[in-house]
TrEMBL record:
Family classification: Belongs to the phosphofructokinase type A (PFKA) family. Mixed-substrate PFK group III subfamily.
Binding site for Mg(2+): 104
Lineage start: Bacteria, Bacillati, Actinomycetota, Actinomycetes, Micrococcales
Species of provenance: Agrococcus carbonis
Protein name per UniProt: ATP-dependent 6-phosphofructokinase
Subunit structure: Homodimer or homotetramer.
Pfam family, one: PFK
Membrane-spanning intervals of the chain: none
Entry annotation: catalytic residues: 128
Keywords: ATP-binding, Cytoplasm, Glycolysis, Kinase, Magnesium, Metal-binding, Nucleotide-binding, Transferase
Catalysed transformations (reactions): beta-D-fructose 6-phosphate + ATP = beta-D-fructose 1,6-bisphosphate + ADP + H(+)
């Protein structure tokens, strides 16, 4: 059996660990052959592949990004797109199965291709940790560690100048990165998409912290909305899936805080820094386990399935289960963190 592997959507620490684990276990224990599909669904449509073997994945589990490249291409659009055309491309290349590693948009497309009869197995990837069918996804732990280090650094410079520091982290629809970062850094306010708040509510906490001769730290998800805002703050247009490119709400909040409190305020937007660099140890382990389990699913011809973490166990679920709803921060988890605000 010849297996194609692709990574699609945003890059993420841990992608290479999945690829490495899949290739090594597939070759050694199952006699499989592998090709890497370049640049996600673009390579799938165009038949752009490279051979993957032991030497090509050696030592890659510690490397960030993806050795295969990625894109936000829609496999159903443009020349070579659609299930029929892709099926012909797979047959021409002698590819018997495809391992698709990606987040919500990628897996939605993979699920559609599987429903149309293509032999596909999914591996969940998102630093936002927002896929409902798995407890955690690799990349999340690394993103939180990076954001935590940034928050710690902002606190020292904020303390030096008695400034309010606003740290914007990723999180389009869910606030898991912000929640964990806020708790880890001891942030005085954490703002997430699931819980809109007024600027007055935010400033009350900021002022109370400042009055105690402390420099306030505010952690905010990029998808946070102030009460009264109809949609997330976006000024960067749309991505390939028609979703607004977010980023910049921190730079909106900082001057509003300064205007209302008189406290000098600065914003830092981490953006893609959270995606880059080497994966944490926890993410390397989880990604490796996902790669091993995905090969087992391919050997079993469990098309349309996705590997998932449930507790400490790796299980299989239908890809459709990951797409029904996002895994949002429940209110009780936010209330838990809120007890430490101010």
């Amino acid at each position: 059996m010849r297996v194609g592997i692709l990574t699609s959507g945003g890059d993420c620490p841990g992608l290479n660990a999945v690829i490495r684990a899949a290739v090594l276990t597939g070759m050694v224990h199952h006699g499989l052959e592998f090709v890497g599909i370049r640049d996600g669904y673009r390579g799938l449509k165009e038949g752009d592949v490279r051979v993957l073997n032991r030497s090509s994945v050696r030592g890659t589990s510690r490397i960030g990004g993806t050795i295969l490249g990625t894109s936000r291409t829609n496999p159903y659009e443009g020349e070579g797109g659609g299930a029929a055309a892709i099926s012909e491309t797979l047959e021409r290349l002698g590819i018997d199965a495809v391992m698709v590693i990606g987040g919500e948009g990628t897996l939605a497309a993979a699920n559609r291709l599987a429903d149309d009869g293509l032999p596909i197995v999914g591996v969940p990837k998102t630093i936002d940790n927002d896929l409902d069918a798995t407890d955690y996804t690799f990349g999340f732990d690394t993103a939180v560690q990076i954001a935590t280090e940034a928050g710690d650094r902002l606190r020292t410079t904020g303390d030096s100048h008695m400034r309010c520091m606003v740290l914007e982290v990723m999180g389009r629809h869910v606030g898991w990165i912000a929640l964990h970062t806020g708790i880890a850094t001891g942030a005085h306010v954490t703002l997430i998409p699931e819980q809109p708040r007024s600027i007055e509510w935010i400033c009350e906490y900021v002022q109370s912290v400042y009055d105690r001769r402390r420099a306030p730290l505010v952690v905010v998800s990029e998808g946070f909305r102030l009460e009264g805002m109809e949609e997330e703050y976006s000024r960067k247009g749309l991505d390939a899936w028609g979703r607004p490119r977010l980023g910049g709400i921190g730079e909106v909040l900082a001057p509003m805080i300064e205007e209302r409190t008189g406290i000098e305020s600065r914003a830092t937007v981490l953006g893609h820094i959270q995606r880059g660099g080497a994966p944490s140890g926890a993410d390397r382990v989880l990604a490796t386990r996902f790669g091993l389990a995905a090969i087992d699913a391919i050997v079993d011809r469990a098309w349309g399935s996705m590997v998932s973490l449930r507790g400490t166990d790796i299980v299989r679920v239908r890809m459709a289960e990951a797409l029904g709803d996002l895994k949002r921060v429940p209110e009780h988890r936010y209330r838990e963190a809120e007890r430490l605000f101010g």
